[in-house]
Design brief:
Strand order of the largest sheet: 1-3-2-11-10-9
Helix content: 25-40%
Structural class: alpha+beta
CATH class: Alpha Beta
Strand content: 15-25%
Number of strands: 11
CATH architecture: 3-Layer(aba) Sandwich
Order of helices and strands: EHEEEHEEHHHEEHHHEEEHH
CATH topology: Beta-lactamase
Number of domains: 1
Distance between the termini: 35 Å
Radius of gyration: 18 Å
Length: 286
């Protein structure tokens, strides 16, 4: 899919300005769910997802729960062989400890726990996860490697910005799962704690539960990071406005994991440009 602009030139120009100086490449698909406006470029290219692939894994898990194969309360023990480093906390706990599938999924999404992720996709089966994606019409989205150690990020998992946006839109609309499983999946995404990319500069209070501050912005998202790769799949709502943004970055020469990684900053600029176009006007008109 080539560049699409159904929003006017101002937003396209703002997004182009956001990319200035970035050393890698960006695939973007953003859709205003209230107006139907779309802005996208390079959105059909197969690209690495990093941990954004955990959204399809979650969706596949709840698909199987809907069909009676598993239950959220079912317990699964962490074995020594399950330990995976990078993000997460289960890796530092005692082997043999049992977790419910609900808790494993919550940890996979909220903390991007790699050990919880491994436990879940081994339970479901990588081939079954990919089969479900094909059944839903996603021809590219694929989990490929179970060890999180490939030299090429595409050897771990791939998708396109368009497919990931469509998955998130259909999940939110209740088109893929039962109402109860849809609600559970969306609550996992809403509880996600990493807002360092698309949501970084948006008016969202991370500690609203403790401080009493009111969040006028609601975020459902999942981020990912590997060397040279930053990804974020997000759904935002403010007032009557609701929009999806998928930004998948790769090939950056900044291979570090610091907060100010150039990929984090590009996604922050991208998220702010789309919020300015689709979020602020909604608030001002209410």
């Amino acid at each position: 899919m080539s560049a699409i602009d159904r929003t006017g030139t101002a937003l396209i120009e703002a997004l182009a300005t956001a990319r200035l100086g970035f050393t890698g490449r960006q695939s973007l698909y953003a859709k205003n769910l209230k107006t139907g406006e779309i802005v996208a470029f390079d959105s059909d290219t197969e690209v690495p997802t990093a941990s954004v692939i955990k959204v399809p894994i979650m969706a596949a898990l709840y698909h199987e729960i809907d069909r009676g194969r598993f239950t959220e309360t079912q317990l699964l023990a962490m074995e020594e062989s399950d330990r995976r480093y990078g993000t997460g906390v289960i890796r530092d706990l005692t082997a043999g400890r049992e977790f419910s599938l609900f808790d494993l999924c919550r940890l996979m999404i909220v903390l991007s726990d790699n050990t919880a992720t491994r436990m879940l996709f081994l339970l479901i089966g990588i081939d079954r996860i990919n089969e479900i994606m094909r059944e839903w019409g996603f021809a590219v989205t694929e989990l490929r490697d179970q060890d999180w150690l490939p030299p090429d990020p595409k050897e771990y998992a791939v998708s396109t910005a368009f497919e990931m946006a469509t998955l998130l839109e259909r999940l939110d609309a209740g088109e893929l799962l039962s109402p109860s499983c849809t609600q559970a999946a969306m609550e996992h995404l809403r509880a996600q704690q990493d807002h360092a990319q698309l949501a970084r500069w948006l008016p969202y209070h991370e500690y609203h539960q403790r401080t009493g501050l009111i969040n006028e912005l609601t975020i459902w998202n999942k981020t990912g990071q590997m060397q040279g790769v930053r990804t974020d799949a997000a759904l935002f709502q403010r007032g009557s406005a609701k929009w999806i943004v998928i930004s998948l970055l790769r090939d950056s020469i900044d291979r570090g994991f610091q907060l100010d990684n150039e990929g984090n900053l590009l996604n922050a600029r991208t998220g702010l440009a789309l919020y300015d176009a689709w979020g602020r006007p909604a608030l001002e008109q209410e």
